[in-house]
């Protein structure tokens, strides 16, 4: 981690002199294939860290009707809407037991019925 922090301070020329070997280090794997370890791994780690740090804060507000609205401002000019309802076997009672399972099969496992001609 200290080396990664030092990379930010050093100029690119100094970086090539000190850590140039890491940018082109090839190692033979057990299968005889060349494995590359270097800058790309560091870049992907930094990118993943940046994504985690840039997750917008989620605000949850409750409307008068009891509807809860979760919103995030990503700073982009796009909008995404998701809907979650309290449904499923967790919310079933004796009168509607099995309804969630039936609806799941209807929504995700139903097959298209072939159209028969001439009958």
TrEMBL record:
One of its GO terms (molecular function) is metallopeptidase activity. One of its GO terms (biological process) is proteolysis. The keyword DNA-binding does not apply. The keyword Transit peptide does not apply. Keywords: Hydrolase, Metal-binding, Metalloprotease, Protease, Zinc. Its cofactor is Zn(2+). Residues 68-110 form the Peptidase M16 N-terminal domain. Pfam families: Peptidase_M16. Transmembrane segments: none annotated. Belongs to the peptidase M16 family. This is Peptidase, mitochondrial processing subunit beta. It comes from Homo sapiens (Human). The lineage of its organism: Eukaryota, Metazoa, Chordata, Craniata, Vertebrata.
